[in-house]
Design brief:
7 strands, 7-stranded parallel β-sheet, Rossmann fold, alpha/beta
Amino acid sequence: MRRPPVRERTVLVTGCSSGIGWATAHILRHRGWTVWPTARKPADLDRLRQAGFDPIPLDLADAASVAAATDTVLERAHHGLGGVVNNAGVGVPGFIESLSRDALRHQFEVNVLGLVDLTNRLIPTFRRQGWGRIVNVSSVLGRLTIPKMGAYCASKFALEAISDVWRVELASAGIGVSIIEPGPIATEFGQNALAQAERWLLQEDSPYRDLARAEIERQRSYRSRHRTWFERPPEDVARVIAHALESARPHRRYPVTVVAHLGAWAARWWPAAILDWLNIRSLTPPANPAPAGPSPK
């Protein structure tokens, strides 16, 4: 697999409002890439413009937005498109039994269906060039599961499987596919996940509303008072993404942080019984978390 030619050092990076996407856009630009970052909110797009980028609006949950974004980036990529970094994602927390069909649909629309739609629209360009890189930002939770984040874990497991198949299906076309598996990173993901919990778990007809409200308040209070000592800055992930884009031999998977490396090792070597035991002990409350009531819609 050849290195990216200079004229093709152009890349679409999704989810650049903050955190990993913001850091990736800046680091790649510093390394000589032409970067087209995306964001969903107008305020975030304005912030990217103020930073000197020419951003593209993108909402992965909206098929029309995905089509418009890909049309825009392909119009701009006159000399070829070097790659796409699929970083945008969302975490919908909650016990699986508490999540409505709409909540689950939203989780997969953003993290899987929208991502695949976007990438599939770019693959024909990569094929014509005979070169391209697809870098998918997954998570250590694409290898391991934890309670109260089951929908998010499921979406990342799906992304890992799709990436593995893409890597094989596209190999003969000269297209590289890499998976980035961050562990704890100092981003706004936790706060954004709480906002998703408020959106989907505090609905009037939800029998889990009171339980969800108490958990959200507990998590928000904890986050305001504690900082996880092993969190790494988003720039650590961005530098790994740069390697996946630029290397003649990109890795299939890039765990980032000690936690991610340990998680990958545990998923491979630890018996399921040990992982279950650890997860069960982490639960609060430890018994049935849901009050009796009708099934969620």
